Hints:
The protein is 23% helix and 27% strand. It is built from four helices and eleven strands, in the order E-E-H-H-E-H-E-E-E-E-E-H-E-E-E. The longest helix is centred in the C-terminal third of the chain and has 24 residues. The protein is globular, with a radius of gyration of 19 Å. The N terminus is likely disordered. By secondary structure, it is of the alpha/beta class. The chain has a five-stranded mixed beta sheet, with helices on one face. The protein has one domain: Deoxyribonuclease I, Chain A (4-Layer Sandwich), CATH 3.60.10.
Amino acid sequence: MKRNLTGKCWIFILVCLCLSGCFCAGASSRSVSVVTWNVQAFFDANTSGSEYSDFIRSKQWGVQAYEARLKRLCEVMRQLDADVYVFEEIENKNILIDISNRLSGNSWNQGRNWNYAFFAKNEDGAIGCAVLSRFPLAEPTVHNLDVRTEQEKQPEMRPLIRLTVLANGTPLVLFVNHWKSKSGGAEKTEVWRNWQESLLSSLMKKDFERGAYILAAGDFNRDISEFNFCGDCNDDSGIVVLGGEVPVYSPWFFGG
Protein backbone atom coordinates (compact mmCIF):
# COMPACT_ATOMS: atom_id res chain seq x y z
CA MET A 1 0.00 0.00 0.00
CA LYS A 2 1.43 3.38 -1.02
CA ARG A 3 1.38 6.36 1.29
CA ASN A 4 -0.57 9.45 0.34
CA LEU A 5 2.11 12.11 -0.13
CA THR A 6 0.12 14.84 -1.81
CA GLY A 7 -0.41 18.50 -1.01
CA LYS A 8 1.34 20.22 1.83
CA CYS A 9 2.06 16.99 3.69
CA TRP A 10 5.10 16.55 1.52
CA ILE A 11 8.29 17.09 3.48
CA PHE A 12 11.38 18.28 1.73
CA ILE A 13 14.86 17.32 2.77
CA LEU A 14 18.01 18.80 1.30
CA VAL A 15 21.01 16.55 1.70
CA CYS A 16 23.82 19.01 1.01
CA LEU A 17 27.41 18.24 1.91
CA CYS A 18 28.85 21.55 0.75
CA LEU A 19 26.84 24.21 -1.02
CA SER A 20 23.25 24.90 -1.68
CA GLY A 21 19.86 23.55 -2.29
CA CYS A 22 16.72 25.49 -3.07
CA PHE A 23 13.19 24.97 -1.82
CA CYS A 24 10.15 26.70 -3.30
CA ALA A 25 6.77 26.42 -1.61
CA GLY A 26 3.50 27.17 -3.35
CA ALA A 27 2.93 29.56 -6.22
CA SER A 28 5.57 32.01 -7.44
CA SER A 29 4.17 34.87 -5.38
CA ARG A 30 4.62 32.75 -2.26
CA SER A 31 7.87 31.00 -3.16
CA VAL A 32 10.71 30.84 -0.65
CA SER A 33 14.29 30.16 -1.70
CA VAL A 34 16.57 28.48 0.83
CA VAL A 35 20.28 27.85 0.55
CA THR A 36 22.08 25.54 2.97
CA TRP A 37 25.83 25.96 3.14
CA ASN A 38 28.60 24.38 5.19
CA VAL A 39 31.04 27.30 5.37
CA GLN A 40 33.71 25.05 6.88
CA ALA A 41 35.12 26.27 10.20
CA PHE A 42 34.20 29.94 9.84
CA PHE A 43 36.00 31.46 12.83
CA ASP A 44 36.28 35.17 13.50
CA ALA A 45 39.58 36.95 14.20
CA ASN A 46 39.25 36.77 18.00
CA THR A 47 40.73 33.87 19.93
CA SER A 48 38.32 32.50 22.53
CA GLY A 49 40.07 29.19 23.11
CA SER A 50 37.37 26.97 21.60
CA GLU A 51 38.75 27.23 18.06
CA TYR A 52 40.33 24.25 16.34
CA SER A 53 43.99 23.95 17.28
CA ASP A 54 45.25 24.49 13.71
CA PHE A 55 43.48 27.86 13.62
CA ILE A 56 44.95 28.92 16.95
CA ARG A 57 48.48 27.98 15.83
CA SER A 58 48.16 29.34 12.31
CA LYS A 59 50.06 32.53 11.50
CA GLN A 60 47.94 32.97 8.40
CA TRP A 61 44.71 33.47 10.33
CA GLY A 62 43.81 36.90 11.66
CA VAL A 63 41.84 40.04 10.94
CA GLN A 64 42.84 40.29 7.27
CA ALA A 65 42.11 36.63 6.56
CA TYR A 66 38.76 36.87 8.32
CA GLU A 67 37.78 40.03 6.45
CA ALA A 68 38.75 38.45 3.12
CA ARG A 69 36.70 35.36 3.86
CA LEU A 70 33.75 37.46 5.03
CA LYS A 71 33.90 39.46 1.80
CA ARG A 72 33.86 36.31 -0.37
CA LEU A 73 30.96 34.85 1.59
CA CYS A 74 28.83 37.97 1.22
CA GLU A 75 29.61 38.27 -2.49
CA VAL A 76 28.26 34.76 -3.09
CA MET A 77 25.23 35.45 -0.90
CA ARG A 78 24.36 38.50 -2.98
CA GLN A 79 24.73 36.49 -6.19
CA LEU A 80 22.52 33.65 -4.95
CA ASP A 81 20.04 36.13 -3.43
CA ALA A 82 18.20 33.47 -1.43
CA ASP A 83 15.49 34.41 1.05
CA VAL A 84 16.89 32.16 3.77
CA TYR A 85 20.45 30.98 4.39
CA VAL A 86 21.22 28.00 6.58
CA PHE A 87 24.85 27.90 7.67
CA GLU A 88 26.83 25.11 9.27
CA GLU A 89 30.19 25.62 11.02
CA ILE A 90 29.75 29.24 12.15
CA GLU A 91 31.71 30.06 15.31
CA ASN A 92 29.40 32.57 16.98
CA LYS A 93 26.55 35.03 16.56
CA ASN A 94 28.97 37.95 16.11
CA ILE A 95 29.82 36.57 12.68
CA LEU A 96 26.14 36.84 11.73
CA ILE A 97 26.24 40.49 12.79
CA ASP A 98 29.32 41.07 10.62
CA ILE A 99 27.62 39.36 7.67
CA SER A 100 24.46 41.43 8.12
CA ASN A 101 26.39 44.70 8.40
CA ARG A 102 28.39 43.98 5.29
CA LEU A 103 25.33 42.97 3.29
CA SER A 104 23.46 46.09 4.35
CA GLY A 105 26.40 48.37 3.60
CA ASN A 106 26.66 49.17 7.32
CA SER A 107 23.42 51.11 7.15
CA TRP A 108 19.99 50.13 8.48
CA ASN A 109 17.74 49.81 5.47
CA GLN A 110 14.93 47.27 5.59
CA GLY A 111 14.51 46.72 1.85
CA ARG A 112 15.44 43.18 0.92
CA ASN A 113 18.03 42.79 3.65
CA TRP A 114 18.33 39.69 5.79
CA ASN A 115 17.17 41.22 9.07
CA TYR A 116 16.36 38.07 11.05
CA ALA A 117 18.85 35.60 12.44
CA PHE A 118 19.23 32.70 14.84
CA PHE A 119 22.37 30.92 16.06
CA ALA A 120 22.96 27.94 18.31
CA LYS A 121 25.85 25.79 19.43
CA ASN A 122 26.68 23.77 22.51
CA GLU A 123 28.49 25.54 25.32
CA ASP A 124 31.72 23.59 24.80
CA GLY A 125 31.43 23.41 21.02
CA ALA A 126 33.75 25.13 18.57
CA ILE A 127 31.15 25.69 15.87
CA GLY A 128 27.38 25.91 15.54
CA CYS A 129 24.58 26.41 13.04
CA ALA A 130 22.86 29.61 12.01
CA VAL A 131 19.91 30.93 10.01
CA LEU A 132 19.83 34.31 8.27
CA SER A 133 16.45 35.26 6.81
CA ARG A 134 14.51 37.98 5.06
CA PHE A 135 11.40 36.69 6.80
CA PRO A 136 10.69 36.77 10.54
CA LEU A 137 11.77 33.72 12.52
CA ALA A 138 9.59 32.36 15.32
CA GLU A 139 9.36 29.59 17.90
CA PRO A 140 13.04 28.53 17.89
CA THR A 141 13.96 25.43 19.88
CA VAL A 142 17.31 23.66 20.21
CA HIS A 143 17.54 19.90 20.69
CA ASN A 144 20.45 17.72 21.87
CA LEU A 145 20.97 14.00 22.26
CA ASP A 146 22.15 12.35 25.48
CA VAL A 147 22.73 8.71 24.54
CA ARG A 148 24.05 6.37 27.23
CA THR A 149 23.00 2.99 25.85
CA GLU A 150 25.81 2.52 23.33
CA GLN A 151 29.06 0.74 24.14
CA GLU A 152 31.10 3.79 23.23
CA LYS A 153 30.71 7.18 24.84
CA GLN A 154 28.70 9.68 22.83
CA PRO A 155 31.01 12.01 20.88
CA GLU A 156 30.50 15.74 20.62
CA MET A 157 27.58 16.42 18.29
CA ARG A 158 25.98 19.63 17.12
CA PRO A 159 22.43 20.45 18.26
CA LEU A 160 19.40 20.32 15.99
CA ILE A 161 17.51 23.59 15.51
CA ARG A 162 13.78 23.82 14.85
CA LEU A 163 12.17 27.16 14.00
CA THR A 164 9.40 28.65 11.91
CA VAL A 165 10.01 30.95 8.96
CA LEU A 166 7.03 33.31 8.59
CA ALA A 167 7.24 33.53 4.83
CA ASN A 168 4.60 35.49 2.89
CA GLY A 169 1.88 34.51 5.31
CA THR A 170 2.70 30.79 5.03
CA PRO A 171 4.68 29.37 7.98
CA LEU A 172 7.51 27.05 6.99
CA VAL A 173 8.92 24.77 9.69
CA LEU A 174 12.68 24.60 9.23
CA PHE A 175 14.97 22.00 10.77
CA VAL A 176 18.70 22.79 10.74
CA ASN A 177 21.07 19.82 10.93
CA HIS A 178 24.78 19.14 11.14
CA TRP A 179 25.20 15.44 11.76
CA LYS A 180 28.24 13.56 13.01
CA SER A 181 31.07 13.43 10.49
CA LYS A 182 32.63 10.21 9.24
CA SER A 183 35.90 11.07 10.90
CA GLY A 184 36.97 7.92 12.72
CA GLY A 185 35.37 5.68 10.13
CA ALA A 186 32.04 5.66 8.30
CA GLU A 187 30.78 2.41 9.83
CA LYS A 188 31.91 3.24 13.36
CA THR A 189 30.23 6.66 13.35
CA GLU A 190 27.04 5.61 11.56
CA VAL A 191 25.37 4.77 14.87
CA TRP A 192 25.48 8.46 15.84
CA ARG A 193 24.02 9.64 12.54
CA ASN A 194 21.27 7.08 13.07
CA TRP A 195 20.53 8.62 16.45
CA GLN A 196 20.43 12.08 14.90
CA GLU A 197 18.10 10.82 12.18
CA SER A 198 15.85 9.38 14.88
CA LEU A 199 15.75 12.72 16.70
CA LEU A 200 14.94 14.59 13.48
CA SER A 201 12.19 12.17 12.45
CA SER A 202 10.55 12.24 15.88
CA LEU A 203 10.37 16.03 15.79
CA MET A 204 9.28 16.18 12.17
CA LYS A 205 6.53 13.65 12.75
CA LYS A 206 4.62 16.06 14.99
CA ASP A 207 4.61 18.77 12.32
CA PHE A 208 3.97 16.22 9.57
CA GLU A 209 0.81 14.98 11.29
CA ARG A 210 -0.63 18.49 11.51
CA GLY A 211 0.00 19.10 7.78
CA ALA A 212 2.68 21.77 8.08
CA TYR A 213 5.07 22.82 5.34
CA ILE A 214 8.41 21.38 6.47
CA LEU A 215 12.00 21.64 5.27
CA ALA A 216 14.99 19.84 6.77
CA ALA A 217 18.29 21.29 5.63
CA GLY A 218 21.94 21.10 6.52
CA ASP A 219 24.99 18.87 6.37
CA PHE A 220 23.90 15.30 7.03
CA ASN A 221 27.36 13.84 6.34
CA ARG A 222 25.67 11.16 4.25
CA ASP A 223 25.23 10.49 0.59
CA ILE A 224 21.60 10.24 -0.43
CA SER A 225 22.12 6.53 -1.18
CA GLU A 226 22.87 5.95 2.51
CA PHE A 227 19.32 6.83 3.59
CA ASN A 228 16.54 4.26 3.71
CA PHE A 229 14.48 4.29 0.54
CA CYS A 230 10.71 4.07 0.48
CA GLY A 231 10.04 0.39 -0.16
CA ASP A 232 6.53 0.78 -1.56
CA CYS A 233 7.16 3.82 -3.76
CA ASN A 234 8.35 4.06 -7.34
CA ASP A 235 12.12 3.88 -7.76
CA ASP A 236 12.22 7.38 -9.21
CA SER A 237 9.98 8.92 -6.56
CA GLY A 238 12.84 10.59 -4.68
CA ILE A 239 11.29 9.47 -1.40
CA VAL A 240 13.20 8.13 1.58
CA VAL A 241 11.86 7.29 5.03
CA LEU A 242 13.43 8.95 8.06
CA GLY A 243 13.50 6.97 11.27
CA GLY A 244 11.47 4.27 9.57
CA GLU A 245 8.27 6.32 9.78
CA VAL A 246 8.47 9.78 8.18
CA PRO A 247 8.43 9.86 4.34
CA VAL A 248 10.46 12.72 2.90
CA TYR A 249 11.26 13.90 -0.59
CA SER A 250 14.79 14.83 -1.56
CA PRO A 251 15.64 16.84 -4.69
CA TRP A 252 19.16 15.38 -4.33
CA PHE A 253 17.89 12.43 -6.38
CA PHE A 254 17.55 14.75 -9.33
CA GLY A 255 20.58 16.97 -8.80
CA GLY A 256 18.92 19.49 -6.39
